[in-house]
Amino acid sequence: MPELETAVGIDIGGTNTIFGFADREGNILSEGQFKTSQYGKIEDFVAALYEKIMAAGHKISGRIEIKGFGIGAPAANIHKGTIEYASGLPWKGIVPLADIFHMHTSLPVIVTNDANAAAVGEMIYGGAKGMKNFVVITLGTGLGSGFVVDGKLMLGHDGFAGEIGHTAIRPGPSNRECGCGRKGCLETYVSATGLKRTLLKIMADSIEPSELRKFSFDQLDAKMIHDAAKNGDTLAKRAFLHTGRMLGFKLADVVAHTNPEAIFLFGGLALAGDLIFEPAREYMEENLLSIYKGKVKLLESQLSTQNAAVLGACSLIWSKDKI
Amino acid sequence: MPELETAVGIDIGGTNTIFGFADREGNILSEGQFKTSQYGKIEDFVAALYEKIMAAGHKISGRIEIKGFGIGAPAANIHKGTIEYASGLPWKGIVPLADIFHMHTSLPVIVTNDANAAAVGEMIYGGAKGMKNFVVITLGTGLGSGFVVDGKLMLGHDGFAGEIGHTAIRPGPSNRECGCGRKGCLETYVSATGLKRTLLKIMADSIEPSELRKFSFDQLDAKMIHDAAKNGDTLAKRAFLHTGRMLGFKLADVVAHTNPEAIFLFGGLALAGDLIFEPAREYMEENLLSIYKGKVKLLESQLSTQNAAVLGACSLIWSKDKI
A287, A279 in Cβ contact below 8 A? Predict the structure, then answer.
């Protein structure tokens, strides 16, 4: 029996690192995950990750051939294979991730930010098949973005294109602090964390009751706010409305930069459906220049949610010509 | 003697339309200009323009072969050869410019926004030779932008990429009205008109004397404010400082979208030199994410100012493969 060609996809997030083996059709053959923060040294992290990947690989029945490792991570530089000054990760400064990975393997290692990986994944496996110009916005702990321009991932001169999570939505010294050291960045409003912050602000300003008032900031997560909103909790609904509007407002700016055919929302917050899509769509349309009005689709990512980040990272290996 | 290959470049601005013949090396062989606003009907405008171009062509000594017509115009759609809902032009709605042009000639006609033309011009004739990722910002009556991504002009799905003049710098219902119908757009602050508006605001808020207080809004232009600032006029200097800062602040956002190697400023306001570049550079750097700091060059366009717009439009004909 011939060996099955597989790619290993790895998604390094602020909270969890997940990985998996996928074939060219996007079938996940094996997967695993662990807490990112338990490894303070990047060398220890990579050694443990590599070991876990190999263990997961051995569970696959039949012979496989690994074609390479695709890695999605915050603030990743695809040209150098580095993670540089990622505010949400335990490792500071410039981290030579690909080089450290190559201490364990001589196979190709492609490192790019998680949103770029999601964009390539959407193009290869998801809803952007056949599209030449689109944007993927990842809504996780933070907010990432990946741009495909004329059929190729836009990388920029230093490999850092697509950091719109750190564009100014509400500039000014009194505004929300961002992990990047600046103030008023988009992701301080539009992300799982941003949603929590907005909810707390609304709780502070309002006297209305809410089932969420009994939870601390640390206890709260986007899923709880989503569930509360579905159950009719006024404050939770208002937090989503505000988050969606901020997103929609900013998407009009994104369109004015790159004029995409579609914008895909990806990640936990995107699962809130109409709660986030309706206000986002309304405010985007309201703020678009007339030449763009009614033309830009705002869509949910079509990558299967459970494995989306891993598939995105795998797709980097299958589409080297588009990077 | 063989015929000299030439392109005709046309720049349609809100105030003036200028045109010229150039060879492949960027030498201008003949040129002309007239007021855009004197033709209320687009068919009359094109007929008069075509006649003037032919008359200018006859003045060139030696035989020439025209290879095509490159046209820079606001809100132009390169895919369709149209101008669509340009707020600063006399013709409303969707104007099929290339089609009307083809009533006079069967040669190629390429229509794109003036900033895209400037970007291609910068790549072919100017300071962006050899660069693969850069942005050109045109500072005229309004503010335009052209993006080159991976060596090609970024057009977007509908041919309308690069309208950052209409991204929000100061959103909100009480903010400056823009010709596009929205409020708080970048070009209401950063453009020749924006500079005038800022000066008037500063005059209104301050009691300091200024030689510019004796001129009406209609009388004022960017050159007068520039001259006054050079002569030490405090209000004029302050107007430039504010304009430059607003620009720099927004450029940090532009970098977060596309991570260019350089940003070129083009057009009248760019000639103000340090008056605009210093505050723009300072505020851009201050607002850049750490991964971009110190890496993005803010440069003056290297197209010869007098013919820059015409050269940019001509370059569309010489670089069809990059569009």
Answer: no
Q: How confident is the model at residue B317 (pLDDT cuts 50, 70, 90)?
A: very high
Q: Which residues pair with A76 in a beta bridge?
A: A83
Both tokens assigned to B283: 């505020």
Dmax (CA) of chain A: 67
Among A156, A253, A259, the residue with its CB nearest the CB of B160 is A259
What's the pLDDT at B15? 84
Which of A133, A171, A254 comes nearest B249 by C-beta? A171
The predicted-structure confidence for B150-185, as pLDDT tens digits, reads as follows 999 999 998 889 999 999 887 667 789 998 888 999
Closest CA–CA distance from residue B28 to any residue of chain A (Å): 32
CA distance B252 to chain A (A): 8
Of B215, B157, A25, which Cα lies nearest the Cα of B227?
Answer: B215
Q: How far apart are CA B120 and CA A45, in angstroms?
A: 46
Place of tokens 């933070």: A142
Among A158, A249, A260, the residue with its CB nearest the CB of B157 is A260
CB-CB under 8 Å, B182 with A154: no
Is residue B228 classed as helix, strand or coil in its secondary structure? helix
Contacts of B257 in chain A (CB under 8 A): 147, 161-162, 164, 167, 254, 257-258
Whether B154 sits inside 8 A of A150 (CB atoms) is: yes
Look at residues A57, A60, A84, A81 and name the one whose alpha carbon lies nearest to residue A71: A81
* N-terminal to C-terminal alpha carbon distance within chain A: 32
Residue B263 has pLDDT above 80, yes or no: yes
Q: How confident is the model at residue B1 (pLDDT cuts 50, 70, 90)?
A: low
Structure tokens at B13: 């601005």
Give all strands (DSSP E) within B42-165, no chain letters: 64-72, 76-77, 82-84, 94-95, 109-112, 134-139, 143-149, 152-153
Q: How far apart are the first and last CA of chain B?
A: 32
Q: What is the ipTM of this complex?
A: 0.87
Token match 């001169």: residue?
A157
Burial of B170 (0-12, 13-18, 19+ CB in 10 A): middle
- 């011009």: which residue's tokens? B121
- Mean pLDDT taken over chain A: 93
Continuous segment of H or E residues that includes residue B18: strand B16-22
Q: How many CA atoms lie within 13 A of A14 on its CB side?
A: 16
Q: Is the pTM of this model over 0.80?
A: yes
Kindly provide the residue ranges of all beta strands, DSSP E only, lying in A190-232, ordered along the sequence.
none
Percentage of residues in chain B with pLDDT exceeding 70?
Answer: 98
Backbone angles phi, psi at B66, to 5 degrees: -85, 125
